[in-house]
Amino acid sequence: MVVNPAHAGGSPARSGVTPPSAYVIAGLVLALTGVGLLWVGIYSRLRPTLGGIPFFYWYSMLWVIVNAALQAIAYRLITRRRPSMSAAASASVSGGASR
Amino acid sequence: MSTSLDGVALTVFIVLFAVVTGLGFYAARWRRRDLHSLDQWGLGGRSFGGWVTWFLLGGDLYTAYTFIAVPGAMYALGAVSGWFAVAYTILVWPIVFVLMPRLWSVAHRHGYATPADFVRGRFNSRGLALAVAFTGILALMPYIALQLVGIQSVLQVMGLGNGSSSFVKDLPLIIAFIILAAYTYTSGLRAPALIAFVKDGLIYIVILVAIIYIPIRLGGFGHIFAAVSAHAAVVNGKAAAAHKPPVFAVIPGPKTYWAYATLALGSAMALFMYPHAITGVLASKERETIRRNTAFLPLYSLALSLIALLGYMAIAAGIKTTNPRLAAPLLFRAMFPSWFAGVAYAAVAIGALVPAAIMSIAAANLFTRNIYREFFRRAATPTEEARVSKLVSLVVKFGALAFVLGMNTQNAINLQLLGGIWILQTFPAIAIGLFTRWMHRWALLVGWAAGMIYGTYTAYGVATPTVHHFAGSLAKIPGLGQTGYIALTALVLNLAVSVVLTIGLRLVARRTDGGPGPVGAADFTVDLGDPQVEPAIVP
Known about the structure:
The complex is a heterodimer of chains A (99) and B (539). Chain A has 99 residues and is mostly helical. Chain A is built from 4 helices and no strands. Chain A has a domain at 22-84. Chain A is 57% helix and 0% strand. Helix content of chain B is 70%, strand content 1%. Chain B has 21 helices and 2 strands.
């Protein structure tokens, strides 16, 4: 496994690599969207309505926001040793190298 | 349906169309570099940052499919055939999040420009790469055709294309397409990337106005859904009287849960196997751009859900048409003043041009890299590659035009779903190939063939009273007794064949594959700034 020393050892804040377990947890977090939307039986209902919109429709739309939140969590899980999101681009090797 | 010419709307439409055409040609000079190489012409120099990538990837999602096919399906058939698109476009993003950064890394490390390039390197197999390239080009044809159907729909509602002879009827569409072909030829991927800004601006304005103004005029969402329920009762009552299954679903019933879920999952898995979606990914300048972008791209999914509801608004507004793909444009005409209807039509038409351009470029890249260079001209120079790609982009576009003028395009959503059946069969080689090369290249090839044949044959057999073949993309799943998306059933068959054959081949030959391919594990995680990853691959 090649880890670019210039990035991996650059600063204490981003030393070390993301553990494999973080990838597993991140994967499970992402999979929640699949469960929430593909298990149609749990939400194919008309009530309760929201502003006149049946449950089936507003529940689906709500998942846009829920999924975005889950992805943000997954992103943080696999890049948590980085100082900030904006520095992630220049330091991504340290996080990605464990795969 | 009245087909009188709407002068004000047409003028607004033509002005906006002219602005975009100017931009398309100007794009050749944007961030000017030598456009005589495939990386420059076909991937925009792999130089796009977060913003451009966001618009470009969004361009892959916001197509005529969004504005014409989805509301049309909602209008004609309701939740199962229409609303699944909302679930599909949400499910896409976690999949992109997992797969695409790896594809970006390996593509930049090895200079891959197409998904077939990757398969070639990963499995060391020209045959498998050819299969992937062929599938990509094949699947893009109906998708490009769908874009044309979208343009055709707005032209028709504006009162154009109603001439007596078929040539006069199709002339406006042909003119629009020649313009598109010309600026794609000169500017490459830069043209749709630049136009995407205008396009998305127009689309957001139209969505915002439509989603606030139309429900107010129709008495709110409660009233709209009440009208839809009443409509469903009438339509399904008629069907029951004729001893036919219900046509319209306000929400999926237990019998259609599988159909809904497989359509959503199959379409989501298919979208980023499309060469044009991968083009958008590879054109971004750094790996993290993609992953960070997937947090914001779901905004597109939210907008899509609002656009889908336009189909229901058309029902509530009393729009009557036997051609569902006209539902949204007719709604605009009924609800908006002429000038704003013109803006909305332009948004739809330009919204179809951008993806059509990206798609034809992607198909051209596939042909050039994986068929022309691989099998005919091993010594092709970058200049020659770019020249061939430009020509092929023209051929592909006119092929799609022939597709539209010659085929029944009533049920436009099927054009996209049909392509999905084919492209999903490349999932094992591309997506699973990003994580493991356990599967044998010959096993993958046979699995692919099995999926393609099963999928095409089954889709060919789907008929309705008016359309005899390729009338839909849902069929019984063998052994399950449920109806599901053919693409996913074919993929399961594909995977089963691939796995069984891989095990068999390993037992017989005691070899995993054709020797070590040039791709190593670390290649999947590199980013800009690492050794051997150039900011832009300069010829």
